Amino acid sequence: MRTRRSARIVLLDQDDRLLLIRCRDDGVIVVPGFPVRELFWVPPGGGLKEGEDFLQAARRELLEETGLTEVEWGPCLWTLDADVRWGGEPLHMHERHFLARVRGMPAITRAYLEPGEQQGIIDHRWWSLAELVAAEATETLRPVGLPELLADVLAVRGHPSGEPRALRI
C-alpha cells in the first residue's frame, strides 16, 4: 500500500479564528465508515514533494493555497495515520498538522494555486471556535472532532507541550 505524507496548517489569526478551506472531493477520497461528502472544510495543506520535510511542505502549501508567507510557526500539534481509498486505490495517509499564527487580517489569494487545485478549492473562511461548534451539525469538518481539538489548543494559548496528539478518523 502506498503512503501519502502530507502537512496541514492550523492557522490562527489574532482573534484565535481558524482558517479553513472548503474543498470539493467528488468521491476521490473514501474513508471507510464515513459517507462520501462532496464538500468539506479542512485546514490548508497537502502532500510532500520529493526532498521536502513536513515543515517545508507546510510552508509551500500555505503559500500555494493562501498566498501567505508572513506567519509565526509553532509546533506540530497533531498527527493522523489512516488507511483510505484514493481514486479507488488503497492508500495510507500520514499527516502532520502544524500550528501557525498570522498578525492582522491578511488578504487570502488564489493566485498561487496549482491548476488541479483551482476547481477543488472552493472557498476559504476564518472560523471562531463558537462558529465551528455550531457548524459541526451541518458541515463536514476535518479532521474529525476539529472544534474540540481547537478548543484544546486555545486552552493552552496555542503552545502545547509534549508530543503531538495522534488523531483518529
TrEMBL record:
- Keyword Hydrolase included in the entry's annotation: yes
Needed cofactors: Mg(2+)
Keyword list (alphabetical) reads: Hydrolase, Magnesium
Offer one Pfam family short name for this entry. Answer: NUDIX
Nudix hydrolase domain segment(s): 2-150
The name on file for this protein is NUDIX domain-containing protein
Organism name: Nonomuraea guangzhouensis
